[in-house]
Write a sequence for this structure.
């Protein structure tokens, strides 16, 4: 999975939330979003944005590191999975996480690179990189029809341009930066 | 009245006997009990199988240590949430079977209510109302506690739990898991003001918490620190400065909460409440302000069956009982009990 479809730079938590919300608005049951990146990349707050896009109360969305899976209910159910503490295949023995792929809701997986074996191909993969204290780079990948369609819809909504590496890159001016509370409510 | 309390919401299988909602006759936690643990590397609460292996010997030991027999138990209380469903179900199904076989009441308990009521196992108990801070690897909440069963959430974490921040920073520093005790120990030889990590208070007057920004700041700092090989700042300094930031936020918020609702009693619970730096700093902060502080002994701060038995006792006294349809609830806010 190496086809970069778009790269976004967010300059604050609020921008990441807003971007997450725009993505969340495109999603339906069965969609899988795989999040990868360093500790502090902003995966949980981005997921909070996705949840808002699905009509879920943002304060309900917290890190699932401890519980492994949090479930929230909005327009569709959101299954928020975190594999941070997963260190080997045996940890999965009694987890039954595969059952979340049956299409009953939107699935967001933090630390998706710790998934043992193969994640479903039909997924949007987002790689987070810390640029500085508040700036994050988010690279979206998608190989199959549905994941490309999600990314295309997002592009259309936000507006993008092509840079000299041939990457689609978001134009920061098109980001509608709001105060935290106006994004959430 | 003897109540058997069971908690399988987390790492350990816990069982306890409590008499009349206050006298703890036994308190068995699987990691301390003489229970064989077959594999060590597994994230424990994921391993429902481990709870299955532990539940019978742990319960049996709790009854034996209380010098009781099965027929002496008057009621059984069990955690129904919040927690991982697969783990919770083991305790719940055991409790249902026990209740059915012995014909005794079954009471489902919210894990967080258990933490708040753990203080009633101590000789010195608070009077209502009070403000409770429950802080652990999975939770960071402030409650206004007006009576048994009467709780209002005043604040909660919007991202990471405080204990989770300890665990993640310990891992970043290569110190192992769980992180709370290790960080506290390292911090003893460090300077609390060596590095000023950001303290997120969110909007003015908010009693909610956010620890992900602090965790990120520490992660970024550690990366730079590793590359610079800065000898002026030690690993101990990082641990101390980080711990101090977490503790400052917790203390400022819980004191603000008490002021907001006009109560003079503060109670701490949960695994992070074992942290001595937190305990001592809070004592200093409230000194001379006429505020009373209640913290359970360390064994009662971490997850245990005794606190579940206490909560079960008070629910039973109010006429509450559950039937065999009792089910696990992964998310179970305390205002929904």
């Amino acid at each position: 999975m190496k086809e970069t479809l778009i790269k976004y730079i967010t300059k604050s938590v609020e921008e990441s939330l807003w971007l997450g919300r725009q993505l969340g608005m495109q999603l339906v049951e069965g969609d899988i979003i795989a999040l990868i990146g360093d500790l502090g990349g902003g995966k949980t707050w981005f997921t909070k944005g996705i949840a808002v896009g699905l009509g879920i109360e943002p304060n309900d969305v917290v890190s699932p590191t401890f519980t492994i899976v949090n479930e929230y209910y909005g327009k569709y159910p959101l299954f928020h999975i975190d594999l941070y503490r997963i260190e080997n295949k045996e940890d999965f023995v009694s987890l039954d996480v595969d059952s979340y792929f049956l299409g009953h809701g939107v699935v967001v997986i933090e630390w998706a690179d710790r998934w043992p074996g193969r994640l479903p191909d039909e997924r949007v993969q987002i790689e987070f990189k810390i640029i500085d204290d508040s700036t994050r780079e988010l690279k979206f990948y998608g190989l199959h029809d549905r994941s490309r369609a999600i990314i295309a819809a997002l592009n259309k909504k936000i507006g993008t341009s092509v840079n000299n590496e041939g990457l689609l890159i978001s134009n920061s001016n098109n980001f509608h930066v709001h105060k935290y509370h106006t994004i959430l409510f | 009245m003897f109540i058997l309390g069971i908690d399988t919401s987390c790492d350990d299988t816990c069982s306890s006997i409590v008499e009349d909602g206050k006298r703890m006759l036994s308190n068995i936690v699987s990691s301390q009990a003489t229970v064989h643990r077959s594999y060590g590397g597994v994230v424990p609460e994921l391993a429902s199988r481990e709870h299955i292996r532990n539940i019978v010997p742990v319960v049996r030991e709790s009854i034996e240590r209380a010098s009781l027999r099965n027929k002496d138990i008057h009621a059984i209380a069990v955690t129904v949430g919040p927690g991982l469903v697969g783990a919770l179900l083991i305790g719940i199904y055991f409790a249902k079977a026990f209740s059915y076989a012995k014909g005794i009441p079954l009471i489902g308990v919210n894990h967080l209510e258990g933490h708040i009521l753990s203080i009633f196992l101590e000789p010195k108990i608070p009077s209502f109302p009070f403000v409770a801070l429950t802080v652990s690897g999975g939770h960071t909440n402030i409650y206004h506690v007006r009576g048994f069963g009467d709780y209002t959430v005043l604040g909660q974490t919007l991202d990471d739990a405080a204990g989770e921040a300890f665990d993640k920073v310990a891992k970043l520093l290569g110190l192992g898991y769980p992180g709370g005790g290790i960080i506290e120990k390292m911090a003893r030889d460090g300077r609390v003001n060596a590095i000023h990590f950001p303290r997120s208070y969110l909007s003015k007057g908010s009693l909610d918490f956010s620890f992900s920004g602090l965790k990120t700041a520490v992660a970024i700092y550690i990366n730079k620190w590793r590359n610079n090989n800065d000898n002026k700042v030690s690993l101990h300094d990082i641990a101390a400065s980080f711990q101090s930031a977490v503790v400052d936020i917790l203390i400022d918020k819980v004191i603000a909460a008490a002021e907001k609702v006009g109560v003079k009693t503060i109670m701490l619970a949960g695994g992070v409440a074992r942290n001595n730096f937190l305990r001592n700093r809070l004592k200093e902060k409230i000194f001379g302000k006429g505020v009373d502080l209640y913290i359970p002994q360390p064994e009662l701060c971490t997850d245990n069956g005794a606190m579940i038995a206490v909560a079960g006792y008070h629910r039973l006294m109010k006429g509450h009982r559950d039937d065999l349809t009792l089910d696990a609830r992964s998310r179970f806010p305390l205002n929904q009990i």
About this structure: Chain A touches chain B at residues 13, 38-40, 42, 44-45, 48, 58-60, 62-63, 65-72, 84-88, 90-96, 130, 133 (CB under 8 Å).
